[in-house]
Specification:
Order of helices and strands: EEHEEEHHHH
Number of strands: 5
Strand order of the largest sheet: 2-1-5-3-4
Structural class: alpha+beta
Largest sheet: 5 strands, mixed
Helix content: 25-40%
Strand content: 15-25%
Distance between the termini: 48 Å
Amino acid sequence: MMPVTFTLNGKPVSLDIDPDMPLLWAVRDEVGLTGSKFGCGMAQCGACTMHVDNEPVRACSVPVGSIAGQKVTTIEGIKGKVAQAVQTAWVKHEVAQCGYCQSGQVMSAVALLSANQKPSDADIDEAMRGNICRCATYVRIRAAIHDAAKSVRA
């Protein structure tokens, strides 16, 4: 056990935990933010996606000790024009069915549109690759991202 200090959703956090604990479990179990989900535990499905210093990461495979001093954003903490555009488009296009993967999908979409406000289908496919949706709402996800991009550019 050792103290690990980082910024979580804009607030300083210091946890006395095993630095090898995955970031996902530190945030869910130690802090109590459960919006990011556990899917596969192997960084393959994307349900656990969070942003570390504005870059999407698979939190199930990132040791919390490796993010000391960095800024972590979870689905509970995303904000701003891009995040609002994505969330609005998700509702408009009725993307979520079961909803389990959606926090990771939204986090990946926000990261994409923060870097590229006019993504092609290929850009979307690449950015969302590895975000698995068992309900197969991929067509709606792509449409929502295109719609959100238009809103961000407006």
